[in-house]
Amino acid sequence: MAAPVLRSGFPGRRWALAWIDDCSRLRSGSQIGPISNWARRQSSVAQPSLHTAQKPRKGEHKWAAVVGLEIHAQISSNSKLFSGAQVCFAAPPNSLVSYFDASLPGTLPVLNRRCVEAAVMAGLALNCHINKKSLFDRKHYFYSDLPAGYQITQQRLPIATNGHLTYSIYLGKKHSQVTTKTVRIKQIQLEQDSGKSLHDDLRSQTLIDLNRAGIGLLEVVLEPDLCCGEEAALAVRELQLILQALGASQANMAEGQLRVDANISVHHPGEALGVRTEVKNLNSLRFLAKAIDYEIQRQITELENGGEILNETRSFDYKRGCTMPMRDKEGKQDYRFMPEPNLPPLVLYDDTSVPPDADPQQVISIDRLRDMLPELPSATRERLVQQYGMLPEHSFALLNEVGLLEFFQNVIKETRAEPKKVTNWVLNTFLCYLKHQNLAVSESPVTPSALAELLDLLDSKAISSSAAKQVFEELWRGEGKTAAQIVSEQQLELIQDEEALEELCQATIEGHPQVVMDVKKRNPKAINKLVGLVRKASLSRADPALIKEILEKKLSL
Amino acid sequence: MLGRTLREVSSALKQGHITPTELCKKCLSLIKKTKYLNAYITVSEEVALKQAEESEKRYKQGQSLGDLDGIPVAVKDNFSTSGIETTCASNMLKGYLPPYNATVVQRLLDQGALLMGKTNLDEFAMGSGSTDGVFGPVKNPWTYSKQYRERSRQDAQEDSHWLITGGSSGGSAAAVAAFTCFAALGSDTGGSTRNPAAHCGTVGFKPSYGLVSRHGLIPLVNSMDVPGIFTRCVDDTAIVLGVLAGHDPKDSTTVNDPVKPTTLPSVPDVSGLCIGIPKEYLVPELSSEIRSLWSQAADLFEAEGARVIEVCLPHTCYSIVCYHVLCTSEVASNMARFDGLQYGHRSAVDMSSTEALYAATRQEGFNDVVKGRILSGNFFLLKENYENYFVKAQKVRRLIVNDFVNVFGSGVDVLLTPTTLTQAVPYLEFIKEDNRTRSAQDDIFTQAVNMAGLPAVNVPVALSSQGLPIGLQLIGRAFCDQQLLTVAKWFEKQVQFPVIQLQDLMDDGSLVPENGKLTSGSLTQ
C-alpha cells in the first residue's frame, strides 16, 4: 500500500544561541554565586518542602504531593508539521497560513520529515523506546482557532515511549549539594499547534491568527514522579536544555515555544492518590513552580478544612500568584478520537531494516539519527568537571545561560590562565556584568579574546587582580581598546622592580611605627594593614604577595 | 460529432475535421438544450471558450498536448476548481471559490482539456439518487430517449415520471450520457460513480485507492473516496486514467510506484482468465432481468475460454452496516471544519457567542441527510461507543478486505457482479424511501469494493424490457486497474450496448449515428 511521504523542512538553525533564555531574563541583580542561579532563585519562591513542612497534628498524616507534567515544545523547523507554510515568530497575523492550515476543504496533510527527525532525536536523548511504527489520530473539539475542528495528534501509538529524564536538585542551606533525580517519561507524541484567538472584549469580537496553526509540537508527557514546584521547574529546565542542545526546539518559554500543563494532586502516603487538578498554560519556569506550590497548598488547605478537590482545569493568575478554575462551558469534553485516514502509519527504520531499494528521501533511520546526536547537557557538564577540574555546580552555571559555555570555551582556548581562574572570571565578573545590564551573552561588549588577553596579563603577574577588575570595566565600555592598551594608558602594571618595592616598604615601615609595633606583637591583622599601606603608596601597582614577603623579611618575622 | 467517443473526437481534432472552439460551442449549446436534466450546477462557459481558444492555437502550431487537448470534460462539484464556484450542492458552500485546483482537475487542464462546468450531486455526495442536493435532482437522460419512450407504459411517459440518475455523481453521469462532454469526473466512496453509470448507461470506473490523488476532492470518507471516471467507452476511461493516475506529493495515500501507461490492447483476450461470481451477490432483491444478464455475461466469458467459477465472499452481508458506521464517523469528522468562520456559509442570525454561531451556521448550511450522518458519526466516536462501533466496524472491514484477498489469492483475476439491484426508478418512486434506506440498498454491490480499495468498473450491458440501461460490475485486484479495464474492454465489445437516442438531439442533427451502434446489442431481453 501507500508509503509515507515526507517533506523536507530543515531547521532554521540547530543551536538557539541567539535567543535569550526567558528565565535568565527574569533574573535580576548581580548576586552571581558559584552555583546554579536558577536553583538559587527558585529556592526563594518555591519553598520545596512546603507540603512536608506541614507539621502533622495529632492523628494526622503528612501530605504528599504528586505532580505530573505535559510539556508542549514547538519543533524548530522551517515549515509546519503537515504543510509547507513557513514557521516564524511574530510575523504579521495570518501571513504564514497555507490552504491546509486554514482547513480549506480538500486539502490533505503531508508529514514534515524534519519534525519526525526532531521527535526521534528527542526520544533518543530522553532514553525512550522509539516506535518503528506510529500512528496519527484526530482529536475533535470546536474552537475558533482550530479551523478543521480537530487536531492531528498521536493518541494511540506515539513515536516514542517509556523514557526517563535525569535532572539535578540542590540541597543543603547553601544549595551546595547536588543530587540527581529521575522522572519517567510516558511518551513523546507529534501533534499540531493551534492558532491563536485574541479576544477583544470591548468590541466583543474574537480575532484569529492562524500563523501558529499547524506548527509541529512535541508533546512530552512526564509520569507523576515530581513532588513540588521546584522539582518540576528543574526537570523542565533540563528538558529545555536538552531540546536546545538537539536543535529540536528553541524552547523559549516567553515566546510560547515551550508550554507546560501540570497535573497536581495530594494524598497521604500509603493511601490512594487524590483527585487531581490540571493547571494550564504555564509559560515561565518561575510561574510553573509558583503555580504548583500554590495549588498543592490550596488542595491541602481545602482537604484539611473538610472540602473536596474537583477534577478541574485551572489557570494561574500570575499577578495574584494563585490558581483559578477556568471557565469550561462544555463541561467534560469527549474528543471523539479517530484514526487520521489521510496519513499512512509513520514507519521508521534502523540500519538492519532499511529496504535496499528505498528512496533515501523517504527513509528515516533511527541509527543514523543516534549517530548524529550532539553532546547532551549532562555529558557536557561531566566533561567540564573532568577536563577542567570544575565544581559540578559551576558546570551547571555555565550551561544555564545560552552561549555562556561557548564563551567560556573560547576564552580557555586563547588564554594561558588556569581553567579555575577562567571559570571564576566568567561566572562571577562576566556574568555579573551581563545580569546587571540584562544582556544576553551574545550581546556582551567584551569578546572572549579580550577577556583571554586580560587573564593572560593577570596570569603573568603583569597586573594585580584589582587592576584587572579595573581593566575589565574599561573593556566593558566597549571603546575598542585592548586590555594591554588600557593597562599602559592607566599605568596599571605591577612594579616589577624589586628594589623600588623594597624602598617603598622601608618608607612605609618608617612612617607607621605603631603598625609595626602591632605586627611585632603578633597581631595577625596588622601585617595585612601594613601590606595595604604599601599597596596604597604604590598606587595599587604592587603585588600584595610580594609586598608581604618583603615586609616579613624586613621585620624578620 | 458529439456522439463520438473521446478517442474518435480526439483524432478528429488532430486531423482538423473540427476545431476545439467548434467542439466547445457545440457542447455548450447542448448543455443549454439539456438544461432540464439539471446535470450542471455551474457551466463555466467563459473558461471553456478561453481554454478552447488556447487549445486551437496549439493545434494550429502543431503543438497539441495529447489525446485530451481540446476535449470538453465536466467535473463533479465536489472537486475544487480554482476560481470556479465549488458547492458540493450544499448551502454551506454556495459561493465558495476555491483558490486552487484539485490535482485531478489540474492534470486534465495540463493536458489541454476544456472544463465545461461543475456537475450536480447529492449534498456532499451523500446519497445514491442525485436527488438530495440543494440545486434539485438530476434527471436521467434515458427518460427522454426513444428507446424508453417506445417501450415503457404510457403513464410512465408523463413529465412527472422522470427517472433518477442514481448517485451521487448523477450530474457527471447525465452529462456524459447526454453527450454534453466526452468524459467527466465523479467521486466514488460507496458506489457513487458506478451506480449512476449503471443507470445512465455509461462506463463508470472506480480506480484502486491510492492510484489517483484525492487532493482537492472535498472528502466524504477519506479512507474510501477515490476520483471516478465517466466515459462512453472503456478505451476513453483508459486515456483519462493515464492522465490522472500516479503519485501526488500532496496526497500521502497515493502510491509512490511509477504508474505504467494505461493503453489497452486493441484486441483484448480473456481466454485463460479466471472470472469469479460471488454467490453472496445473488440476493432476492436483485431484479430478474439483471440476474439473467449477469448469467448471460458469465456465459460469454466462458464461451471465450475464460474459467468462470462461483466464489465466496462470506462477510458481504456485514458490509453495508459496517460501511455505515465508518462512513458516518469520518463524515462527522470531515464536516467539523464547516463552522462558518473561514469560508462558506455563515449564519446572520445569532452572533451572541461562537458556539451559537456554529450551531446556527451548521443548522442552516447542511441538509437533513448530512446532519443525520454527522449525528450518527459522532455517536459512534463517543468514548463509550468507540470500541463497540468504530473499532468493531474496522475489524469487519478487515474481514471484508480479507474476503477479497482470499478470492484473488485463489487465482481469480476478475469478479463479475451486478452494479445495481434494478434499473433506474422514477423519482416519485425513489423518494418513497429515505436517503439512508436508499443508500443501503443501492450501495449493496458497490461499497465493499471501496472498503477494500479495489478497482471496479461499471460496463453498460443492455437495455431492459423498458428500454433502460443495465450495467454489470467488474472488480479487479488492487492496482491491477489495467488488467481490469482490458477485461472490461473485451466485455464491452461483446455486448454492443446501444447508443441512447435522444429525440430532440436527433432531430437537429447534433447526433447522427455514426458507427452503427444503434442496433440492439447481443444481450437483449
Automatic annotation (TrEMBL), chain A:
GO molecular function, one term: ATP binding
Enzyme Commission no: 6.3.5.-
Keyword rRNA processing included in the entry's annotation: no
Domain (Asn/Gln amidotransferase) ranges: 406-555
Primary localisation category: mitochondrion
GO BP term (any one): mitochondrial translation
Coiled-coil portions: none
Catalytic activity entry: L-aspartyl-tRNA(Asn) + L-glutamine + ATP + H2O = L-asparaginyl-tRNA(Asn) + L-glutamate + ADP + phosphate + 2 H(+); L-glutamyl-tRNA(Gln) + L-glutamine + ATP + H2O = L-glutaminyl-tRNA(Gln) + L-glutamate + ADP + phosphate + H(+)
PROSITE patterns xref list: GATB
Keyword Protein biosynthesis: yes
Domain of life: Eukaryota
Pfam families: GatB_N, GatB_Yqey
GO cellular component labels: glutamyl-tRNA(Gln) amidotransferase complex; mitochondrion
Family matches, as SMART domains: GatB_Yqey
Subcellular compartments: Mitochondrion
HAMAP family referenced in this protein's UniProt entry, alphabetically: GatB (MF_00121)
Subunit structure: Subunit of the heterotrimeric GatCAB amidotransferase (AdT) complex, composed of A (QRSL1), B (GATB) and C (GATC) subunits.
Cited PANTHER family: GLUTAMYL-TRNA GLN AMIDOTRANSFERASE SUBUNIT B MITOCHONDRIAL AND PROKARYOTIC PET112-RELATED (PTHR11659), GLUTAMYL-TRNA(GLN) AMIDOTRANSFERASE SUBUNIT B, MITOCHONDRIAL (PTHR11659:SF0)
NCBIfam families documented for this protein: gatB, PRK05477.1-2, PRK05477.1-4
Protein name, per record: Glutamyl-tRNA(Gln) amidotransferase subunit B, mitochondrial
The species this protein was found in: Rattus norvegicus (Rat)
This protein's encoding gene: Gatb
